[in-house]
Amino acid sequence: MGLTARIRTRDGWAVSHAVVTVTDMAGTQVLRAEADEKGVVGDPTGLAPGAYTVVVTAVGHGPAASTAIVTASGRVDAGTITLARQGGGDELPPPGPWTVDPAHSTVGAVARHLGISSVRGRFTDFSAAIEVAPDEVTKSRVEAVIRAASIDTGNGPRDTHLRSADFLDVETYPEITYRSTGLTVAGPDRWTVHGDLTMRGVVRPVDLDLVHLGTGADPWGGTRAAFRATGELHREDFAMNYNQVVRAGVAAIGTTLRVELEIQAVQGESLPQA
């Protein structure tokens, strides 16, 4: 196989039918290949040893270029090439209000179980609003409300226990809220959202690592923006101290929770029909 490559978005999805063009150092095109539905390029054309430029393009994405060295074997593995969706990158979406679409968003958390595996859960009932500041993007804000009783880990008895006073105590504290207090640039394509999380009546600061994945039109005449956010929190900080030590000091349930958010937001203060 002469050229192999894997084309992905920044959030790990395959970019099907991306086009890979290879030119030599004189700028002459020596190879052109198209990725398959899995975002994989595998072209059998052998290449002469030397340095080449690999350019990847795809509809709806910005181009990417890199340099590849072909050895005497005539083969080169360009590895994983990441394309940014148009509308993503260093900028947040256009300023103004955005409403999170819960039907196309996920609010989840991951906890360690028995010290050897992970248990995933999600909240199925939540609402959130985003305000992208027009001048200073760092003044943008987000507010979210989660109905604590909507926790779903795929196991009924476990969910019942999580709703009890040992954990979320949903009868006393039916809502979990998050209100941002600031936004800082954390890198060329990411931000840190600073905010206050209120759970079980306890308020603690929680930071979220945020990536804007892109902005574009939807089938209902609206404009949507996609985000991914991750963070960590310690449940003891919110008076959730229940645990069971099962062996050699290993806790049945980890005390650190990893927060994982996949968000779609619609421009404006109301959602279109979906």
- Which percent range describes the beta-strand content? over 45%
Task: Detail the poorly predicted runs.
Answer: 244-251
The strand order across the widest sheet is 8-11-12-14-15-16-17-20
The first-level CATH class of the largest domain is given as Mainly Beta
Based on secondary structure, the structural category is mainly beta
Q: Please name the CATH topology of the largest domain.
A: Lipocalin
Shape: elongated
What is the helix content?
Answer: under 10%
Question: From the 3D coordinates, which CATH architecture of the largest domain would you assign?
Answer: Beta Barrel
- The separation of the N and C termini measures 44 Å
Give the ordered list of helices and strands: EEEEEEEEEEEEEHEEEEEEE
Largest sheet: 8 strands, antiparallel, barrel
Radius of gyration: 23 Å
* Count of extended strands: 20
What would your notes on this structure say?
The longest helix has 8 residues, at 156-163. The strands form 4 sheets. An 8-stranded antiparallel beta barrel has the order 8-11-12-14-15-16-17-20. Strands 3-2-5-6 form a 4-stranded antiparallel β-sheet, with no helix packed on it. It has a 3-stranded mixed β-sheet with strand order 4-1-7, with no helix packed on it. The chain folds into 2 domains: 3-83, Immunoglobulins (Immunoglobulin-like); 96-267, Lipocalin. The chain contains 1 helix and 20 strands. The protein has 274 residues and is mainly β. The radius of gyration is 23 Å and the shape is elongated.
